[in-house]
Amino acid sequence: MIWLSESFRQQLPQPWRSLNEAFKITGDIYREPAGVNRRTLRFELAGQGYFLKLHWGVGWKEILKNLLSLRLPVLGASNEWRAIHKLHDLGVETMQLAAYGQQGWNPAASKSFVVTHELSHCISLEDYCMDWAENPPLPAIKHQLIRRVAQMTSKLHQHGVNHRDLYICHFLLQQPWQGGDEHLHLHLIDLHRVQIRDKTPFRWQVKDVGALYFSAMQAGLSQRDLLRFVRDYSQRPLRQVLAQDQAFWQAVNRRAQALLNQK
Questions:
Q1: Which of 144, 171, 168, 125 is closest to 232 using CA atoms?
Q2: I need a labelling partner for 30 at 20 to 30 A (CA). Which of 139, 190, 228, 260 fits?
Q3: 8 A C-beta contact, residue 39 and residue 53
Q4: Domain coordinates of the chain in residue numbers?
Q5: Residue 189's closest CA among 7, 48, 53, 32?
Q6: Residues pairing with 216 in the sheet
């Protein structure tokens, strides 16, 4: 099975009719984890940048290793394909799909790929906030970003989605941006491990928000900033949240501290 967006199809010299054509693409390799049959590369077509993620047979050994560690293995590109569609349905800004393909039903041996448009003129929140502790931004800028990240995370969790790698480096801020919610475009990326259910379990909400907190610890956020996030994520008055959700936020703090201790 191969799907090509109309704009991507028009730029190809000839339509891809097999996965082999995707696997022949060359470009700048961005990621190729050791021991995992997965590669991410950037290539250009008609002056447009794209990212291609290739997956091929992870093998039963890798599948069993993940299951024995109580982790769901990433079996192919279909997970990211579904996640991108889900985020678009929810109105959460993310990547734009260009192509997708899958071949074979054996999860240990199947091959698949996904192509997304490059998000140009973007900076990760990790880089954007890197010097905030020494050079604080305008309060309005900081508050708008906190509110948007909190709203995006809340929307995911309200609709049964958890990210599993929700660090601020995976939020890409469109540039230029000088402030104002109407001009703020923040894209959530790295969706290959996303889980989608009818309802997001408590522990996975804690892991996502704990990871966010951990990754933002060096951004010079004040106690008031953290409470803004709590309020905007919960979408209820702060007094009510602190009275009713104490166990959740304590668990988030423990998760963030545990990640900090692992550094």
A1: 144
A2: 260
A3: yes
A4: 2-117, 122-262
A5: 53
A6: none
pLDDT above 70: percentage of residues in the chain: 91
Percent of the chain residues past pLDDT 90, beyond the cut: 81
State the amino acid at position 111 in one-letter form.
K
Whole-angstrom distance, CA of residue 44 vs CA of residue 203: 40
- The DSSP letter of residue 234 is H
Residue range 58-74: average pLDDT?
58
At 209, list the tokens.
């928000």
**Both tokens of residue 22?**
């995707």
Architecture of domain 2-117: 2-Layer Sandwich (3.30)
Q: Are 140 and 225 in contact (CB under 8 A)?
A: no
Can 181 be counted among the known catalytic residues?
Answer: no
CATH fold of 122-262 reads Transferase(Phosphotransferase); domain 1 (1.10.510)
Q: Mind listing the pLDDT tens digit for each residue in 111-148?
A: 999 999 999 999 999 999 999 999 999 999 999 999 99
3-state DSSP call for residue 160?
coil
Of 165, 181, 190, 208, the active-site residue reads 165
pTM of the model: 0.92
- As a whole number of angstroms, the distance between CA 16 and CA 12 comes to 8
With both helix axes pointing from N to C terminus, report the angle between 223-234 and 139-158 in degrees, rounded to the nearest 10.
40
